[in-house]
Task: structure prediction
Amino acid sequence: MFQKKLYFTWLKIFIAIILVLGICFRFINIDRKVYWYDETITSLRIVSYTRGEFDDLLLNAGSITVEKLQQYQDINPDKNTINLIGSLARDNPEHLPIYFVLLRWWVKLFGNSVTVIRNFSAITSLLIFPCIYWLCRELFGKSLVGWIAISLTAVSPILVLYAQEARAYTLFSVVVLLSSIALLRAMRINTKRTWQIYIASLIFALYTHLFSVLVAFGHGLYVILTEKFKLTQKLKAYLLASFYGFLGFLPWLILIITHFDGINWVSKNLPFLDLLKRWFINLGFTFIDIQIGSPERLFDVKKLVFDNNALLQLNTIWPYILGLVLVLIVYSIYFLLKNAPQQVNIFILTLMAVTPISLIIPDLISGGQRSTIPRYSIPAYLGIQLSVAYLLGTKLTNFTNQIQHKFWQIVTVAVISLGIISCGISSQAETWWNKYSSYYDAQVARIINQTDQPLIISNHSARLATLGYMLRPDVKVLFIEQPEIPKVPEGFTDIFVFRPEWSLISGLETQENSQLELVHNPGELWILTKK
Result:
């Protein structure tokens, strides 16, 4: 008895240490990584600019310094929260307003630096810990499973990466957990108040991220299956709650239907073998990030390039580690189905499966790469962590077979160690796979910063603004709208062209009697040189 008590004491200490490390990973060097394209769009959103308005602003400004460019991304006192919601509705209605509204208030209180903006996500991510613990108590009634789940999410590479990014995915993680807790409580207690709380959580989730619709569909599937397709009182209560929840979302849903133009890059066809590779890697992100094995970009989703095939070669360690992670996940699901109550099985499986299946099916039928974007499958990652937490929490408290008990102790330490190593290495990096098309921007900025008086020309205003976060304040930029070809101003030692359209390349070469030489290929940086 004394040995068991001592064992649990050390286990709690171990989990507490992991939790502290997980919190540290969310804040350490938070301003160091590339502030990438999507985060720049976040900055434009919270100051209430549409992309068209930002383009017009830069067109009228001519060549300006990076310092002036950054000032355009400060909070504009002439624009308010209504303008922010309006810019989203007109430009990107698929991006829901709650995150951007909350972040705007946060920035008004604490400032507009990269650190402050990303800190909102990092602090929000801390809510994942009490939420997943609470969800485990609702599902399993075991506190240890909840503590294991906290330790897994604390050092989960995918969750730590998005806890340091100025996007809505961390808040999405929190609302997935909160709405799930609210549903389980409503099903268990079944009072008017608990169903009202579920309605509120559902509306909040729907206005946070569009894929909350898929989570809500999973909730519905869970209720229908647990009620065995019978129109019971609980199913009636759920249907009524869902009706009110989606009724509250209806105004924005109409905006999405009427204004959404689609996202071209997600529908680009990807070879089936590359789909399999990305699914394989994405599963691994739950516990290990294989980017730690290479300084090169994993993949470019815009150009459909898989840049790092070498990482999956059989003469490297990474496919074997990913294979072991896959075995752990599959076994945890098997163990869950065999040992947990049916209602628990159904809930975790629907949380784990509905979102990725909803993305995989259109990719297989009509082509696309939706299912390969890890951030879209955050509910699945949470479901996997719940399943593995149940497996480890059960095995670590089973003392009947000492050899098996020791084995599962080793597995637990190994899984958590993979997360710690992944997060530790990524926390020191200036760029990472989740920066996608901006992966090489830091290298591009260093090339430009080494010159005396550079001018950067580009057809892409948001790309210029993104690069500006890494440039010297005195560097000048010039935004050109297609098909315009600018007269290059005098007085610059180096003329760079960043991510140009081909019409700009040919036009500049003809007009300036010069040629453009590629300086950094993956970063798409060119320099204009006289013939």
User: Anything to note?
Assistant: The two ends are 85 Å apart (CA to CA). The mean pLDDT is 92. The CA atoms of residues 56 and 328 lie 53 Å apart. The longest helix spans residues 233-259.
